TrEMBL record:
InterPro entries linked: ATP-NAD_kinase_N, C1-like_sf, DAG_kinase_typeI_N, DGK, DGK_typeI_N_sf, Diacylglycerol_kin_accessory, Diacylglycerol_kinase_cat_dom, EF-hand-dom_pair
Pfam families: C1_1, DAG_kinase_N, DAGK_acc, DAGK_cat
Organism: Pristionchus fissidentatus
Keyword Kinase attached: yes
Name listed for the protein in its UniProt record: Diacylglycerol kinase
Catalytic activity field: a 1,2-diacyl-sn-glycerol + ATP = a 1,2-diacyl-sn-glycero-3-phosphate + ADP + H(+)
Higher taxonomy: Eukaryota, Metazoa, Ecdysozoa, Nematoda, Chromadorea
Length: 745
């Protein structure tokens, strides 16, 4: 980019008097250029002669449009030019070659914004772009920005703000305060060093200059339809031409994923581009209905309560109420967001972060947008979806939640990590988090939450929509063993009634004995569910290797379970981890555990929750004892009498240690033929020393570990949401009774 930045600055110099070769095309006030000067500019910048129609398109996109539209149309025109240079067809059909008369007398475009827009479209670091802007507005080239030159930069930022439809009256003094703060020595002028240092530490400045393109593009699309091809099972009508949707293989058309505005593919060009706004220019308490023509029969929510025929009424995107056109005046303009208001974060409570003066003083804003707590009794829901989990279920869940809630609440983890969503919700003290994915996805989100500085007791609790294979944490917290296309409204209702519970998390530190030994890096340094060594990790490692090699064979939850069964059978025959006690030493709360007593072990597992391997309880049910206690006891690991009555608890700051005899035993526990694995300890610290390479796994993620020393200690407790206890059916009671009888035999 250094070459591009120098080219732009040098080009600007060629228009400056007295020696610039293009100075004759510059206006008297040295601010604008004519079409001929623009032609010379384009040829030098792109290094090629362009077709006249593309040059006209580029020029007119910058001259004819208002300032608020330039940023969009100019970027599209530039893309078309670059595609033409690369031998591709222009992608924009909205920007047609100019058909107006070819005389450009009197038509001029501003030179400095032209250079700035070209610089922001380059793929480069903000630091380099800031340097370009500095040189562009440093008119006298003295290495400093004086008051007049800073005013030019402020006008550039106000142009971007007007394009985003922000409140420029409120924004202008904030921008001026930012620019004043950049002048670190308060001498009235800004040096290049001050400009770059201040610009790089102020996110709003980067955005308003157009440099933080990810956030700017995200905001730019707000209010625009997001079209997706859909097949409809019920009669549906086009919102544009009002005729029925019919296509090959049934009723199909394009539907907006944000507001369900529907149209034929041929009608999309004429569709009204008036989708929902997901945030506001400023915070306010009142949300108005977003009415859309009702293209399906419904019932009126007004007093008449009668049926509404197709296109005889309106539907609100937020509250899903329907009303006849004639009944609309009888309905309050204020929208209460309907049945899901407990979970929805209204767009009125999301607004640009730099509109808060306190954020300007902090010189850093993590997100361009910030959210605040609604006043009424709600807990907005932050949703993270891993669309790669659960086959195609994740993608469907993502799209449904985007429509049911505010799309700003829903994040696709395949595109961005959890951090943007967590930062947006950081100032909402009463909210919930929903993670849609497997155990690994949950761990990812919990790790990201550890990095957010929450106020005491204000960390939001986490609920789970299980989309993985094992889903052990979801089972433990009563969210089920897997999502089976249940009604998402019902799931949201269950979250509303769920209760918080604190869950232990454990720090694991692995020190390899010889750095020269080759192995895999551990996947995590935190244990949320379990950690194991030996037979079960060997099966999981084989599964992981096979899935990496043949991903097409592992595309459903049922197939994954069949593969686990086959690999478990292979491990039973090979017994790769037999005589485990000869190669492992283990200390629990400083006390050595003798692994050689009793039956030979092929694995050990440390349990934080009551579910492992997709629903197995290795600790088992504790026998009732009048002297039993749930609280820690000194050296409880050796007191077998105490261990038999110890209860496993997700939040007691204790971890359970069990021994595994074989893959067959694991299958027997899963089938209910055996009650549990061998209890070894219940303790708060564990130290393990291995003398050879072993397969290991943390929360279902396996790896091969060379000889090492492992230390496991308590890290923290995090709030989770536990689902309601489901009513047990008579069949399940009969099944449990039958299993208990078989076990006793």
């Amino acid at each position: 980019f250094a070459d591009s930045s120098h080219k732009l600055v040098d080009l600007l110099g060629e228009f400056q008097p007295p020696d610039g070769i293009f100075v004759k095309h510059l206006s008297e006030d040295q601010q604008t250029i004519d079409f001929e000067g623009f032609q010379h500019f384009v040829v030098v910048y792109f290094g090629a002669d362009l077709p006249i129609d593309l040059v006209e398109q580029l020029f007119m996109s910058f001259s004819k449009q208002t300032k608020e539209r330039r940023l969009s149309t100019f970027e599209e025109a530039i893309t078309n030019v670059r595609n033409k240079l690369n031998g591709l067809n222009p992608i924009s059909e909205r920007l047609k070659p100019c058909t107006e008369e070819k005389s450009y007398e009197g038509v001029r475009i501003p030179l400095k914004p032209l250079v700035c827009y070209l610089s922001l479209l380059e793929a480069a670091s903000p630091e380099n772009k800031l340097e370009v802007v500095f040189h562009v507005y440093d008119s006298d080239a003295n290495g400093f920005l004086d008051k007049a030159e800073i005013e030019g930069i402020i006008e550039q930022m106000m142009t971007v703000a007007r394009y985003q439809h922000w409140d420029t009256i409120e924004l202008e003094p904030i921008i001026r305060q930012m620019m004043s703060d950049i002048d670190l020595d308060a001498d009235g002028i800004v040096s290049l060093e001050e400009w770059k240092r201040g610009g790089l530490s102020t996110v709003p400045l980067l955005v308003l200059l157009g440099f933080d393109t990810l956030q700017l593009d995200d905001l730019k699309e707000d209010g625009a339809h997001v079209w997706r091809l859909r097949h409809f099972s019920k009669p549906t009508y086009c919102n544009v031409c009002c005729s029925a949707l019919v296509g090959w293989g049934g009723k199909q058309g394009l539907s907006c994923g944000m507001c369900k505005y529907t149209a034929h593919e041929r009608c999309v060009r004429n569709a009204t581009n008036r989708c929902i706004r997901t945030f506001s220019a400023r915070q306010c308490e009142r949300l108005s209905h977003h009415w859309i023509d009702a293209n399906a029969p419904s019932k009126c929510a007004a007093k008449c309560g009668t049926s509404i025929s197709v296109f005889q009424g309106k539907r609100c995107r937020w509250c899903d109420r329907h009303a006849h056109n004639k009944c609309l005046p009888a309905i309050s303009d204020a929208c209460d967001m309907g049945e899901l208001k407990y979970h929805i974060l209204p767009p009125t409570h999301i607004f640009p972060a730099f509109l808060e003066r306190k954020n300007v003083q902090q010189h850093h804003v993590a997100n361009l947008l910030q959210a605040v707590q609604p006043r009424f009794n709600t807990r907005p829901l932050l949703v993270f979806v891993n669309p790669k989990s659960g086959g195609r279920q994740g993608q469907k869940v993502l799209r449904k939640f985007e429509y049911m809630l505010n799309p700003r609440q829903v994040y696709d983890l395949s595109k961005v990590g959890p951090e943007p969503g967590l930062n947006l919700f950081a100032n909402i003290p009463n909210c919930n988090v929903l993670v849609c994915g497997g155990d690994g996805t949950i761990g990812w989100v919990l790790d990201a939450m550890d990095k957010i500085e929450y106020e005491p007791n204000k960390r939001p609790p986490v609920a789970i929509l299980p989309l993985g294979t094992g889903n052990d944490l979801a089972r433990c917290l009563r969210w089920g063993g897997g999502y089976e296309n249940e009604n998402l409204n019902k799931i949201l209702h269950n979250i509303e009634k769920a209760l918080p519970i604190y869950m232990d998390r454990w720090q694991i530190k692995i020190e390899q004995k010889k750095k020269s030994d080759k192995g895999d890096p551990p996947p995590y340094n935190i244990i949320n569910n379990y950690f194991s060594i030996g037979v079960d990790a060997s099966i999981a490692h084989r599964f992981h290797v096979m899935r990496e090699k043949y991903p097409e064979k592992f595309n459903s939850r049922m197939r994954n379970k069949l593969w686990y069964f086959e690999l478990g059978t292979t491990e039973t025959l090979s017994s790769t981890c037999k005589n485990l006690h000869e190669q492992i030493d283990i200390l629990c709360d400083g006390e050595t555990i003798d692994l050689g007593q009793g039956s030979t072990l092929e694995g050990i597992a440390l349990l934080n929750i009551t579910s492992i391997y997709g629903g197995s309880n290795l600790w088992g049910t504790s026998r009732k004892s009048s002297g039993a206690s749930r609280f820690p006891m000194p050296f409880a690991s050796t007191a077998n009498g105490h261990l038999s009555s110890r209860v496993q608890d997700i939040g007691d700051k204790l971890v359970e240690v069990v021994g595994l005899e074989s893959a067959i035993q694991m299958g027997q526990i899963k089938a209910g033929v055996r009650a549990a694995a061998r209890r070894l300890s219940q303790c708060s610290t564990v130290v393990i020393q291995t003398h050879k390479a072993f397969p290991m796994q943390i929360d279902g993620e396996p790896w091969m570990q060379p000889p090492c020393i492992i230390q496991i200690t308590h890290k923290n407790q995090v709030p989770m949401l536990i689902g309601e206890t489901k009513t047990t059916s008579s069949w399940n009671l009969l099944k449990k009774s039958s299993t208990a009888s078989t076990t006793s035999l």
